[in-house]
Amino acid sequence: DTGVSQNPRHKITKRGQNVTFRCDPISEHNRLYWYRQTLGQGPEFLTYFQNEAQLEKSRLLSDRFSAERPKGSFSTLEIQRTEQGDSAMYLCASSQGGREHSFEQFFGPGTRLTVL
Amino acid sequence: AQSVTQLDSQVPVFEEAPVELRCNYSSSVSVYLFWYVQYPNQGLQLLLKYLSGSTLVESINGFEAEFNKSQTSFHLRKPSVHISDTAEYFCAVSNTGGFKTIFGAGTRLFVKA
Description:
The structure holds two protein chains of two kinds.
Chain A: E1 5-7, E2 10-13, E3 19-24, E4 31-37, E5 44-50, E6 53-57, E7 65-68, E8 75-79, E9 88-95, E10 106-107, E11 111-115
Parallel strand pairs in A: 2-11
Antiparallel strand pairs in A: 1-3, 3-8, 4-5, 4-9, 5-6, 7-8, 9-10, 9-11
Chain B: E1 3-6, E2 10-14, E3 19-21, E4 23-26, E5 31-38, E6 45-50, E7 56-58, E8 64-68, E9 73-78, E10 87-95, E11 101-103, E12 107-112
Parallel strand pairs in B: 2-12
Antiparallel strand pairs in B: 1-4, 3-9, 5-6, 5-10, 7-8, 8-9, 10-11, 10-12
């Protein structure tokens, strides 16, 4: 299967703990995105990578959040000192750049985070 | 800043009836427009997109959307829905760089027999 994969699929943690999520994009895609989705809302843009460079961060991404994409392959999203308000579905998507690929983003299944 | 408003949170409709899911956007720059669909227990997937050219775009499963610049709308329509169209539909807008995509809150389409 060559789709976007995310691990873990579910994470339950206690407030104040750190968590890390992983996203493996489609192999030939150079763009990678992280979104957060809460119940009844659409995905909210968090950050974007082109290859290994993080080019855009939303103001939603507080200093407790950090994302990396070493070597332009997989990406990790870490949340430090989790709060109950961090409970959400965290989505990863990837795409090929350039107009010829029409900016279609391919989404992973998401990681559901529950902070107790 | 860009924003997307989906005017209906839920749309119940009978099978074989027509449906329209409404989407309005705001932006001070040129944008690309998308509809994504999320079927039950599945991830988001692209349904159709408008980049340029013909303002009417179609999907392979009978949906169409029309870009109306003067009304800043991109409504999604289907002349006859099926039970299998039951899903959540998200309208989205991105800048022409294509990387920062803003999604609407979604419209849940429920097709009844």
